[in-house]
Amino acid sequence: MKVTQLSYRNQKKVLFSNLSFDTKRNSLIVIEGKNGSGKSTLLKICLGLVKASSGQVELSERVGYVPDSSEPYFVGMSPQVFFQFLCVNLSLPESDFQQRLEDLRAKFSFHHQLMTTPIQSLSLGEKKKVMLMAAFLLDPPLYLMDEPFSGLDEQSLIYLSEKIKEELTKGKSFVIVTHGYQDYLSDTALTLQL
Fold first, then answer.
1. Which homologous superfamily is 2-193 in?
2. What average pLDDT does this structure show over 146-174?
């Protein structure tokens, strides 16, 4: 993904201007900033969900997106149904998909009984785990993650940190919006301050 001279202005103010970066193979870009500085908006612009005021985003690869909140996406759906939907739409062999899902579920300490609970009834951390597992099941070359560490228990924080490092060694790239969890990320991260 290549971002060139990107600017965004909402009705009140300019959130960011002339922002440029490139996600090369095995790159980690961390976006920091105060609440309301445009971090989440930047990710949504990169995905084409929000229109930039000016600038350009070139996105040619598949993306694993982890939103800050999953509320609007899964009303009435359980994790089990959501993951079955992913499996069918990705045309993956079910046995391989199920094995990968079970591995992620165990590593994120996502209890089996939660698989049939409506997603909107899950805690913030449990919803975040569903979104993280979905992104890793997609196995894309690029991950865009909005506050992926928020709401997670210590074991899941450590596993997510290890998983990100593992994926980087495989040549994957990450753009991560975070607020206070930099200790869980690589020292080689490029940090952008909004």
1. P-loop containing nucleotide triphosphate hydrolases (3.40.50.300)
2. 94
